[in-house]
Amino acid sequence: MLLAFCYPIFTIFNKPKFVGNIPLLYLYVVIAWLLAIILLVVSSEIKPSKKLQKGKDE
Amino acid sequence: MSNSIIIICSLLYLLILFGVAYYAEHQLKKGKSIINNAYVYALSLCVYCTAWTYYGSVGRATTNGISFLTIYIGPTIMAALFFPVLRKIIRITKAQRINSIADFISTRYGKNASLAAVVSVFCIIGVLPYIALQLKAIAISFDILTKNAISGHNFFSDNTLYFTVFLTVFIIIFGTRSVDATEKHEGLVAAVAFESVIKLVAFLVAGVFVTYGIFNGFNDIFLKANQIDEFKKLFTLSGENANAGWFSGILLSMMAVLFLPRQFQVGVIENVNEEHLKKAVWLFPIYLFVINIFVIPIAFGGKLVFQNMPIDADTFVLALPLHFNKPLLSMLVFLGGFSAATSMIIVETIALSTMVSNNLVMPFLFRQQNFKTSIDKSIRKTILYIRRFSIILILLFAYLYDQYVAQYFSLVSIGLISFAGVAQFAPAIIGGIYWKTASKNGALVGIIVGFFVWFYTLILPSIAQAHLINENIISNGPFNIWWLKPQSLFGLEGFDSITHSLFWSMFFNCTAYFVFSVYSKPIPQEVYQAEIFVDIDKYNLPGSDSIWRGTAYMPDLFSLLENFLGKERANNLIQNYAHRHKIAIDFGSKADPRIVSFSEKILAGVIGSASARIMVSSVTKEEELSLNEVFKILHESQQMIELNKELRKKSIELTKATEQLREANLQLKTMDELKDEFLYTVTHELRTPLTSIRSLTEIVHDNPDLGDEEREKFLGAVVKETERLSHLITKVLNLEKYESGKQKLNLTSFDMNLLVKDLYTSYKLVANEKAINLTITQPNSMLLLHADKDLVQQVLVNLISNAMKFTPEQGKIHLVISDLQNEVQVSIMDTGKGIAKELHELIFDKFFQAKNQTIKKPVGTGLGLAICKKIIEMHGGKIWVESEIEKGACFTFTIPNFEPGNTLIEYNESSI
After folding, report:
1. Residue B736 shares a structural domain with residue B753
2. Which one of B313, B365, B760, B775 counts the least CB within 10 Å of its CB?
3. CATH value at residue B840
4. Would residue A38 count as lying in a domain?
5. Contact at 8 Å (CB) between B259 and B422?
6. How far is C-alpha B17 from the chain's CA centre?
7. H helices within B147-275, ranges in order?
């Protein structure tokens, strides 16, 4: 997740270009951020319940 | 807007806040915890978004574009690590009864009082300006709203002073109710969660107003901004080391979201259930995302609207609605900012006051022989007074800082400086929970060195900027030594001040931490704590919490606990612990070492681990343990834990086995009962015809004069009863054969369509006699089925006969054959009396039928459907009924057709 927001991937979008009227970098950050949140939703709602259970069992 | 209206609204808001806090505490008294909720927990974490977010982000966006987002992207990334890191910290905190971040670090490194004091002092230095920043934000927003000049230094005409006083009262009332600092602040957390909602709603409303009220959406703002040269540099990250600045911002906020005292307070200390993390992991990032959606539009919108006006960009969110004459919206925005500031002040002040009392004042007092000997029951009040006094002092200093120093800095600079300050705790905490070799010396030196570098590279230039020291030190370095220049230390240039400071402070901090940890000899207590912290899941079990050795007497120990906790609570805690661990308590004799350790832990919750250690040592004679002894105890402890684990596993297995046995036994009993009932019914059924046969033959035998006609009638009845008997026996035997698996299928290929049609033809006559309308629907093609033809016919006969039996005159019976690709389906629908829903499954049970024969004797043997079910199941098919009382019944069965070559031959008629 950190990679998506750091060098070198970040530099690909750090350009004075626009999609519609929105700056490319802004659009990228918003989309990447949203994807990161979706990833968190999926991973936390599925995995941790098992992990927590495991932790408790231990 | 007039002063009085704003003050009244602010007071009303604070009263609502009081109401929320009071309601939460009232609910708790009734046994219902409001904060024991994942959503409330996630909202309380949003105390991260302070006035800095509310006002400062907009200000920063006007000069640096989206670089402000690093402060929110970092926590999103850190949220992914909540499970491995935050959950572990929560478990350790609960197990060790830790009550602050300073206490956490101190407890990990051998419950060292100096380390706790150092961390506390640095926390105050790092965070006090941040609290002042919130007061500054309240003052500025108040002045903007009233269109006054920025508040002067006249205390009594300064509204910020009154807000500060009000907040002080609020925090004292709801933050210092219990002497046990590990107890949850129910009311305060509920108020903080409530404030998170308010600030989000207010900011979003302001954002929507600017984006869609003043402009025509995001596109319009960006389009207009793109036409002005000044904006173009904001669309990308520009500058020599922009990437480094972006990365350091993310890293900084990743650490801040866990280690800022307020975040530690709400995320760790106030956590009621670690399961709440599951929701917080994504709810918290969503909140951060949503609250930032309109920052850029407000920033750009403000710049476009106030192009040539001297308006501070930090205040755009409030200045814009005011400029467009929206008083209500302005008031809402003001309250949003007010709530962002107050929630931060509340939590941060509580966290700091606990540190001040437990890690600075208490250890100092407990070291004074006079104070130690004079401790009695009044100590609880003393502790609470110390905390209350600390709260007053912290807010007073924050207020003074705001009045005299903060005016020289922007909101953003103060916030980032604080972030960089608390980041210095990261190596000691992260290393402390994952690296056993990490030592107290390493942590102490690392934190001190890191803080010194932070102060030198960030605070010193700020002080110089405020003209409080000679600026020459900044531009040329102290004593004109160029490589000591605070903002380009060792010649490192080109980075922004925060990145520069973060790099050097963390470099020195981590290096010192590593080197001193590796090369210093830890004390036994440190080794033990390291073991517990790193392997918390292993040691977080009963019987694994004592390395104490020495002599202690229960009366001394109990008297100590009684002073700090009260007699009843101390007694309950000790008794419960002794009961759980099967320790015999004699209040007049020596104390068990485990009781001593437990007492220390309980006291740690009240006065911090370092002070608790001092206090327990004062009433006991502790024997110094060697490292080998600690390792031996740890080894024994581990063995005990393993044994416990094994026992628990065995116990679970045993419980499972017992449950299975119980179920099997129950099943056997039921089967036995059913078998008895079945035997009873069968014998009853056999006896009925036998009795008839006997009576009839006796009549014929005893009456030789009987006429031929009568004799024939009686003998005919005998034959009929014999047939019935034979039929019943055949059915029972058949069923037994199917159940035992003795019956083998004689599989042949036959045309199912033809079979059903033949049966239809033979039953059509009987149906006509009974005035029943029998019809059939079948496919046009020949339907080859690979099955036991006789048995399938038996099923069909049984079902059609049943339908005939139960359908009254003028009723209807309809047969439907369907070809479902891999199986053949046959349905027999009638307009009979129907079957109740609850009997749909049971009617296929032979035992059910048998059982019911004792109640109400049906027509037939009652074994037909059970046999049908067996036959269909033997073919791998299914049989079921759909029916309602008085609405007829539809019996359907399917038989899979595994024969691949079932050819279709066209028929001439499809429906008769």
Report:
1. no
2. B775
3. 3.30.565.10
4. yes
5. yes
6. 26
7. 159-175, 186-208, 218-226, 229-232, 242-259, 261-264
Specify if A21 maps to a domain: yes
Q: Encoding tokens for residue B299? A: 């920033």
Flag whether A31 is in a domain. Answer: yes
CA torsion through residues A29, A32, A34, A40, sign: negative
The HSE-up count of residue B598 (CA atoms within 13 Å, CB side) is 22
Last residue of a domain, one of B426, B450, B476: B426
Cβ within 8 Å of A, B 669-708: none
ipTM of the complex: 0.86
Q: How far apart are CA B439 and CA B121, in angstroms?
A: 20
What's the full length of chain A, in residues? Answer: 58
* Single-letter code of the amino acid located at B562: E
How high is the mean pLDDT in each 10-residue block of chain B (912 residues)?
Answer: 80 89 88 90 94 88 89 94 91 89 92 91 90 86 72 62 86 80 81 94 95 93 88 80 84 93 93 91 95 94 88 89 91 92 90 90 84 78 90 92 73 79 94 93 95 92 79 86 88 87 94 94 85 82 62 83 84 85 77 84 82 82 70 71 81 92 89 76 77 84 82 85 82 77 82 89 87 90 86 90 89 91 90 87 69 48 82 90 90 80 41 34
Exposure on the CB side of residue B467, measured as CA atoms within 13 A: 3
DSSP state of B590: B
- Asked if the structure places residue B468 within a domain, the reply is no
Same domain, B68 and B195: yes
Supply the CATH number for residue B122's domain. 1.20.1730.10
d(CA B610, CA B702): 111
Tell if the CB–CB gap between A25 and B275 is shorter than 8 Å: no
Rounded to an integer, what distance in angstroms lies between the CA atom of residue B908 and that of residue A10? 74
Residue A28 domain flag: yes
Residue B546 is predicted with a pLDDT of: 63
Examine the domain organization and report whether B151 and B85 are in the same domain.
yes
Specify the number of domains making up chain A. 1
Looking at the fold, whether B148 and B14 belong to one and the same domain comes out as yes
Task: State which H helix or E strand residue B471 sits in.
Answer: none
Q: Considering only CA atoms, which of B359, B360, B365 is closest in space to residue B382?
A: B365
Contact A41 B282 (CB under 8 A): yes
Q: Do B282 and A5 touch (CB under 8 A)?
A: no
Q: Is B490 helix (H, G, I), strand (E, B) or coil?
A: helix
The residue segments making up the domain with residue A12 are 7-57
Note which residues in 1-58 of chain A have CB less than 8 A from chain B.
1-2, 5-7, 10-11, 14-16, 18, 20-23, 25-26, 29, 33-34, 36-37, 39-41, 43-45, 48-49, 51-52, 55, 58
Say if CB B226 and CB B56 are below 8 A apart. no
First to last CA, chain A: 30
In angstroms, rounded to a whole number, what is the distance separating the alpha carbons of residues B895 and B825?
7
Who among A2, A16, A55 is closest to B235 (CB)? A16
**Cα atoms in the Cβ-side hemisphere of radius 13 Å centred on B557:** 29
Q: If 0-12 CB within 10 Å is exposed, 13-18 middle and 19+ buried, where does residue B149 land?
A: exposed
What pLDDT sits at residue A48?
A: 47
- Which residues, 6 or more positions from B79, have their beta carbon under 8 angstroms from its beta carbon? A40, B280, B281, B282, B284, B285
Integer distance in angstroms from the first to the last C-alpha of chain B?
90
If asked whether residues B377 and B305 sit together in one domain, one would say yes
Are residues B618 and B659 located together in one domain of the fold? Answer: no
Max CA separation in chain B (angstroms): 150
Domain count, chain B: 4
User: Which of B590, B625, B660 finishes a domain?
Assistant: B625
Q: How far is CA B364 from CA B105, B113, B359, B637, B681, in A?
A: 19, 10, 8, 34, 90
- The reply to whether B773 and B806 lie within a common domain is yes
pTM: 0.70
Residue B660 lies in a domain: yes
Determine the structural domain holding residue B662 and report its residue range: 638-740
Decide if B673 is inside a domain: yes
